[in-house]
Amino acid sequence: MKDSVNHIKQKTGANNCKNFDHNSFGKHPRRLRVVGAAVLALGSIALATQSAQALSPLGFVNGITSSGGVGVSKDILYGDEPLQDLDIYYPKPLAQAMKAQSAINNDYPMVVFVHGGSWESGNKDQYAFVGQSLAQAGYVTAVINYRKVPEHVYPDYVNDTAQAIAWSIENAASLHANPSRVAVMGHSAGAFNAVAAVANEDFLAPYGIKPTDIATVIGIAGPYSYDFRKFSSASAFPSDATPDQVMPDRQIKGAQPPYLLLTAEKDKVVHPTNALKMTQALKEAGVTVQTGEIEGASHATIIGAMAPPLRWVNDVRAQVVTYLDTMLK
After folding, report:
1. CB 40 within 8 A of CB 98
2. DSSP 205-235
3. Which of 56, 78, 221, 260 has the greatest number of beta carbons closer than 10 A?
């Protein structure tokens, strides 16, 4: 295999917050960094094991999640700014073939996952269990970072999500994934990012990507339709912004892929009306939408139960994987 990877770098530097401009989404395209398979296999790949983080529920989930033999390439930049990086998780057969430098004759479906945290906390490492879980189910999975408040407010984190999606599609073949079988998935604030980045075609347009280039979008407990000005999350939005300017249910533009919107029965953080309003808006735009409520799930366990050892907590993993298998395989 040829050593053809460029621009796999560590995070550096800092950046100032952009001003909100509703009419300038994505007018500053960044060069997509091309990633080849060779160094991903030989230089970056490692068996995916995570140590528990003290006093961190997410660290606990990672600590008890078996790698299942999946592989991971860490800290790959999809952009030039700090936190514009991602990790790639590989299904076990693919990881083994890459490590052995064996011939790889098939490609895999791919999922791009966006973590939550009210746009101010969380990172890709804390959600390693999602990457591992989806890789165990047969999906090459990108778990992304994105820039956060207070330095960055809307639309920066949505722009980052769009750029990561575009990077993943552009580099899918180098990762032995099929660029026509890419799903985007997010939880909580990450679901907002994922849905917003796809629902409004202006976010993907600078990269020559259309929403319909994505096979499907999965939103898990996302705040797609609320008046942020009444909550502490107001700090994640420009001071002069209104819900009509930023909420995804009011920003649908362009032909869309199918959506799956899941809610948690016992969610005390994000009210289910967010998904109801997003579903209504998508259907009014002629978009195919499936919905589901995860019984017994809270805002935390609706994503925590994606970890295979916690699948007994609720059936979110089964629902997500069944849907992905139907849409991508």
Report:
1. yes
2. GGGT--GGGSSEEEEES---S--GGGSGGGG
3. 221
Q: Which two tokens stand for residue 116?
A: 């939550």
| 6 residue type, one letter | N
State pTM to two decimals: 0.83
Structure confidence by residue, pLDDT tens digits, 93-126: 999 888 888 899 889 999 999 999 999 999 999 9
Domain boundaries, the chain: 46-328
| Residue 253 DSSP class | B
Q: Is the bond leading into 155 cis (omega within 30 degrees of zero)?
A: yes
320 by Cβ neighbours in 10 Å (0-12 / 13-18 / 19+) ranks as buried
Domain 46-328 homologous superfamily, CATH: Alpha/Beta hydrolase fold, catalytic domain (3.40.50.1820)
Quick one: average pLDDT of 176-198? 98
Q: Is the CB of residue 40 less than 8 Å from the CB of residue 88?
A: yes
CA 158 to chain centre: 11
The per-residue pLDDT for range 111-166, each reduced to its tens digit, is 999 999 999 999 999 999 999 999 999 999 999 999 999 999 999 999 999 999 99
Cα separation, 282 vs 286, whole angstroms: 6
Interatomic CA distance for residues 252 and 217, integer angstroms: 14
